[in-house]
Amino acid sequence: MALKTVDARGLLCPQPLIETKKVLKDLKVGEEMIILIDNTTSRQNVERFLADNGATVACKEEAGVFRLTAIKRQADMPHPNEKAYCATPENRGSHVVCLKSDAMGHGEAELGSILMKAFVNTIKETAPLPSAVVCYNRGIFVALKSSPVLEALQALHAQGVRVLVCGTCLNYYGKKDELGVGVVSNMYDISQALVSAGHVVYP
C-alpha cells in the first residue's frame, strides 16, 4: 500500500498543519506518512506538532523541499490544536531564558518555588517571547511531567520557543524518563543557544 502523502508545498501555516493532522488522525499505530514542505518555519511547526503527538519524524532536504517521514507511535493525540503550532519567528526575540534551578533567588526554598512558578507562567505573556528556554542542573525539574509549570512550558514550546533540557543533568538525577516537555540536549547545543543569544535572562 502506498504511503499517504501530504503535499504542502506552497502552503502557508496553518494549512500544512491542518493537512498533516487529517492524515495522522486516520493512520493506524505503526503506519507511516510523508509530508512535503518548502519553507523552514512550516517544517519546524509540523515537526513539533508530530513529535508532541507521539510520532517519530525524519527529515531530508532536496532542492529546497523538506521531505518529512513520520511514523505514528500512539493512538491518541494529546496536543490536537494544530493552530497553536503556527508560530512565526517575528513573535520571538533574540533572548534566552536560562533556568539553572527550580527555585528563584536565594533564601527560603518554598518561597523560591513559588516565585519560579510565577516567573515561568509569566514568560508566555511577555512580548517578544524568548527564542529558547534552557534548563540545566536543578532547572531540569521545571520540565518534568510532575512540574507545576509544565503546561506553561508546553505552551511556549507550541509557540515555537525551543526548550533545551540538559541530558547529563537528567541522567544525574535519574529523571530522563520523566521529561514532560522539550528536547534532551547536550552541552554543545546549550552553549550554542547561550552564546548566540542577544542576551540571557537568569531569574
Draw up the topology in text:
Elements: E1 4-7, H1 15-26, E2 32-37, H2 40-52, E3 55-62, E4 65-72, E5 96-99, H3 109-123, E6 132-135, H4 150-158, E7 162-166, H5 167-173, E8 183-185, H6 187-195, E9 200-201
Parallel strand pairs: 1-2, 5-6, 5-9, 6-7, 7-8
Antiparallel strand pairs: 2-4, 3-4
Helix pairs in contact: 1-2
Number of discrete helical segments: 6
Seen as an oligomer or otherwise, the chain set is single chain
Overall pLDDT, averaged?
Answer: 89
Bulk shape: globular
In the CATH hierarchy, the third-tier topology of the largest domain is known as: Hypothetical Protein Ychn, Chain: A
Could you name the CATH homologous superfamily of the largest domain? DsrEFH-like
Structural class: alpha/beta
CATH architecture descriptor text of the largest domain: 3-Layer(aba) Sandwich
Which strands sit side by side, in order, in the main sheet? 8-7-6-5-9
